[in-house]
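Dear colleagues,

As part of the handover before I leave the project, I'm documenting each prediction I ran so the next person doesn't have to rerun anything. This entry is a single chain, and its sequence is reproduced below.
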Amino acid sequence: MSEAIILNENLEKSSTIPMPKSYADINPHNLYLYTKAYLAAIRANSASTKTRSEVRGGGKKPWGQKGRGSARAGSRRSPLWVGGGVIFGPSSDRNYFQKVNKKQKKLALLYALNQKAASGALFVVDNIAVESGKTKDAAKIVEKLNVRDVLIIKELIDEKTFLAFRNLSNCYLVEPNEINAYVVATYRAVIIEKSVFETLVREG
């Protein structure tokens, strides 16, 4: 059974809390579907080419139909010409949306959290705050955990804590309404306040 690690005020391991047994039965395919849909939704979708009907010019027939000894040509906008239209090119009208229902989103998140707990990378604290607002103090928190990068989930982000973590490239500070299965799975470790953790487990 996977367990979340409870940290004390000094960010040292004090005890563990088992994850619900039902989390182990969640199909990992839920995480795959959510991740696929999430990445599709954030695509820029800015690639666009012009078809032959959108290319400028081409109103006049380049040369006569016969007598020239070369292939027939009806328009300079033809895809066969340099500068002509593009056949089946990318369009910004394409919709990459993939539907994932609420139940699958929830299962994906719980599965991702359970995987972090199974690997010993889910840490629960009563409160995480950097009252000084200094980045060096925030960096010390990450150093104590000895992790490469970390997702920090705080009930309510105060200004000082936000400023402290803002310039750390290996940290991402979020509130409960911002968490999803993708960001949980992306980071090597997760630090979550106890109140948020209990809410997630209770609702799950």
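The mean pLDDT is 92. The chain has two domains: 3-43+96-203, 46-95.

All the best with the project,
I.
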